[in-house]
User: What shape does this take?
Amino acid sequence: MNFMIKHKHQQLYDLLCAELRKGTWPCGAKLPNLKELACQYDVSINVASKAVELLKEAKLVSAKVGDGIYSETSGQASIVEFRYSGERLYGQYRDAKELYVLVEDNAEWQLIYWDAIFAEITNENPDIELKVSYNRPGGFKDCKFDLGLGSVEFLAQSGFSPEESMPASVMNDFYGEIYDGMLMRPSDFNWQGVECYLPYGFINYSLLSANNYPEPEQDENVLDYIERLSKNRKEPLGYGIHNCRSLLTNCGLEFFDHDHKFSIRNPRQTLDVFKRIRALYHAGHLIWPHGRVADYEQIYLMNSDQPIRIVEYASNRCSQSERRKFMERGLKLMRYPADRHPVYIPEVVAINRHSYFPEECLRIVNKLLEPASQKRAKEHCVFQPIRPELFKNEPYLLEEFKCAKPALFIPDANILKTIYYFINWELYYYLNGKRNDNVINFIEQKIKYYQQAKEKENE
Assistant: This one.
C-alpha cells in the first residue's frame, strides 16, 4: 500500500505558516508577490498560487488581484492554524475521516513530539486524516473540534465542558478497561456526576535554584518553605511564584462548595494566607508575576540583576536544550514544597459530544497511553507519564500524587474565571496596599454581583 505524500504547494504552505508564526510578516504587512515567492522557494508560480490559496482558506492572509498578499495574523498562537500531520495530507483511501484536533501545547520543541505522534497515527490508520491546531484557549467558536488535548482548564475554556464532552464510558464501549494500573483514571475526573476526561499525563512543579538552598522538608508547603529560608535573612530571598491559583491550592484553600458552586469556604483561613503572602512579598522574599508577564522568560535566565533566586518550574516549561543550559550555569532542580496539597496539573483528552467519529478519537488516546509514547513524552519534557513503571527513579512523585488527587483540578469554566477575575487580582491589589484586611468581604461582594449578572444573562 502506498501513501500519497504532500504536494509541493502543501509543503510550501507549511513553510509560509512557520514564517507567519515567527512574525516574519506582522499583521498588515505585505508578503512577497507570487513571482517573488516562486523564486524564493524555487517552485513554480502555480505552486505558489495554490499555497497562498490555502493560507487564505486558513484566514492567515488576504489577497486581492492587483493589490498584493497581506498578513492577517500577528504571529501569536491564538490564531487558529491547522498543521497537517505526517508526510501526507490525503490518504490512499478515498473518503478518509477528517478529525479536527485542538492541542494546548504550541512551543516548537513541544510540536516536535506532537507532530511525530500524529504522524504515527496517520500512518498506522490510513482511514484517518488529522487537522491539528496548536493554540491557546479562546477564538475557536467557528470550528467544531472533534477532540481536545491539554489541561482540564484549557479544555473547559475552549468549549470542552463536561456537558459538551462525550462520557468517558465510550472508551469501555469500544476498548474496555485500558486504564488498569495507571496513575489516573477517568473516574478521577468526576464533576457533578459526569466523567468525560480521559487522562494521558500530568505536569508537576519543581524548583529551579540559583544558589545552594536546602531542599523543602516533607511537611512544608510553599509559604512554610519561604518563611523558613527567609528567617533571620538580611537580604531578600527572591522566590518567584509561577501560578497564583497553584499557590493557593498548595496552601489548602478551596473555592467551591459541595454543590460545586463558587464559595470562599474558610474566609478566616484565606485572610491568614493572604497576610502571610503579603509579609513575604513586602520583604522581597516572594516575587509576584502579575504585571511582568512580558519579562517572564527573563526570570529563567536568572541574570545577576534579577531579584529572583528560586523560581517555580513546570516540567514542560522549556526544552531539553534549555534545561541543559540551566544546569551548565550551575542552577539546580529541587523538589517542590508539597506538604498535603502537592500541585499536579492533569493532561487529558476530551471528545466532542457531537463528533461523528468517537472510536477514531479514542485511537489517539490509545496511542498516548502506549509505553513508548509515554516514555518519549517524559524524555522530551512534554508531560509526565501516568504509567507508574516509568517512575523507578522518582518514587516520591508517586507518593505525592496520591495526596494530590482530591485537588487535581476544577473543570468548571465559570469557576475558573471567577477565581481569575476576583481571587488572583484582588490578592495582587491587597499585596500592593490597594485593599485592606476587609479584602475577603470585598471579594465576596464583587462575586455576588458578578454571579447575579451571569444568572440574569442566562435567563
In short: The mean pLDDT is 81.
